[in-house]
Amino acid sequence: MLPFQCCRRRHKSSDMAYLTTLISILLLFPSTTSQTLQNHSFDTFNSTSFNFLDVIPSASINGGALQVTPDSAGSEMVVTLNNNSGRIFFKTPFKLWDDSSSSQKLASFNTSFLINIFRVNNGTPGEGLAFIIAPSLTIPLNSSGGYLGLTNSTTDGNVTNRFIAVELDTVKQDFDINNNHIGLNINSVRSNLSVPLDFELAPNGTKFYVLWIEYDGDRRHIDVYMAEQPSRELPIVKKPVKPVLNSSLDLKEWVNRESYFGFSASTGNTVELNCILKWNISIEAFGEKGKSGKALAIGLGVGIPLFLILISAGLYYYYLIKKKKEEDNYGSNSQIMGTLKSLPGTPREFNYQELKKATNNFDEKFKLGEGGYGVVYRGILPKEKLEVAVKKFSRDKMKSTDDFLAELTIINRLRHKHLVKLQG
Ligand SMILES: *[C@@H]1O[C@H](CO)[C@@H](O)[C@H](O)[C@H]1NC(C)=O
Ligand SMILES: *[C@@H]1O[C@H](CO)[C@@H](O)[C@H](O)[C@H]1NC(C)=O
Ligand SMILES: *[C@@H]1O[C@H](CO)[C@@H](O)[C@H](O)[C@H]1NC(C)=O
Ligand SMILES: *[C@@H]1O[C@H](CO)[C@@H](O)[C@H](O)[C@H]1NC(C)=O
Ligand SMILES: *[C@@H]1O[C@H](CO)[C@@H](O)[C@H](O)[C@H]1NC(C)=O
């Protein structure tokens, strides 16, 4: 039975008459992860792209494309097209998993991009282009040639590199399968997995290809698809059914929680242009404070319990405390506090002012929904910077303190991944 029932007989209905307003608070902490999608789409690249992208020399933006290695020689910066490396990243990192250690959830993402690896003067191409997930907006020194801008002779293979890459390699090193392959690389230019391609990455003339890289954070699996695209202007072709490369991959093991997405490339004794012409990213975002609240409101609004459902807690505030009834009030209060203390996890006590502030004075705009005994508001505890749900019990609907305590006790017992915890 509920632990407070032992006290029930002490509670006379007359006591309740003095509780002009009984407010209790439900605190909802988004303890589970909440996903919304973050989307970015580049149909072309120009000077405004610098607002979103970090371009690390010898990379540049030119001709409506990301030139991950130089597309023209002769300037002071680039004396020759040979032996260059460069990287271009999306400026802000993506969070790949939640910081709450309880959650095993990894972000899923899809990225697709249109590329042109161009063989200069019908010469021999070199060296390659890669999609990379990296820990910082930097490039290793001396990462030209076979290092693809990914590593150098000192750092190659070091687990502290914290990157994974999907490489398109046009030069055969002694450890490579051939001079026209796709590979999955972890911390090294030596691919963990390589697949020879049955079409030429850098043929004579100009060919465009689309790559789709899909990472499933639940299955911890990566699929890479590739298809030829007839021209730069035509709509992007359909993704093939069969991936060209696929592998299980636990990103949590290899990269940082906050990682940068982008491209890396190099040239060596032989050169190619490594161009990205279009780029889309769609990635699951973990609820930032505020963002998840919005999603919660939407979720409840459309009647879909997206990630959180209620929870609760109690705190009592007597709107009008009549001095002479202090004793009675004290009786109810101590009953509630007694119950709170007896609950597993010992929910803490919040004062009314704190919650009033957290909900902007129970602002209508913060209203998430209405339950049996009252209204639920979204709130932010300023001190803790925590997003919570606050339930304001209404006296009309609740017949007694017991009803409240019963709800409190039940909510505190609920444990479910879509339910957030009772905080106090
Ligand atoms: C990625 O694409 C697949 C379909 O190919 C889709 O099922 C999945 O929801 C997408 N994931 C993201 C994060 O956009
Ligand atoms: C990016 O997404 C838009 C909108 O869905 C689509 O039209 C376009 O073809 C995509 N581009 C690439 C490179 O996948
Ligand atoms: C890997 O890199 C770290 C940090 O740069 C360095 O301390 C360590 O010695 C390197 N390990 C090897 C085997 O080179
Ligand atoms: C991939 O290669 C890295 C670096 O050589 C190595 O640490 C790792 O164990 C390899 N992983 C797999 C799955 O082969
Ligand atoms: C590429 O084209 C040039 C002439 O433009 C030709 O000399 C060369 O043999 C061709 N190379 C290949 C691999 O087809």
From TrEMBL:
UniProt cross-references to Gene3D superfamilies, sorted A to Z: 2.60.120.200, Phosphorylase Kinase, domain 1 (3.30.200.20)
Record field: transmembrane: 295-319
One term of GO molecular function: protein kinase activity
Pfam families: Lectin_legB, PK_Tyr_Ser-Thr
Protein kinase domain location: 362-424
Binding positions for ATP per the UniProt entry: K392
UniProt keyword terms in alphabetical order: ATP-binding, Lectin, Membrane, Nucleotide-binding, Transmembrane, Transmembrane helix
Source organism superkingdom: Eukaryota
GO biological process, one term: response to symbiotic fungus
InterPro entries for the chain: ConA-like_dom_sf (IPR013320), Kinase-like_dom_sf (IPR011009), Legume_lectin_dom (IPR001220), Leguminous_Lectin (IPR050258), Prot_kinase_dom (IPR000719), Protein_kinase_ATP_BS (IPR017441), Ser-Thr/Tyr_kinase_cat_dom (IPR001245)
Coiled-coil intervals, chain numbering: none
Family to which the UniProt record says this protein belongs: Belongs to the leguminous lectin family. In the C-terminal section; belongs to the protein kinase superfamily. Ser/Thr protein kinase family.
Protein name: Protein kinase domain-containing protein
Organism field: Trifolium subterraneum (Subterranean clover)
Lineage, top ranks: Eukaryota, Viridiplantae, Streptophyta, Embryophyta, Tracheophyta
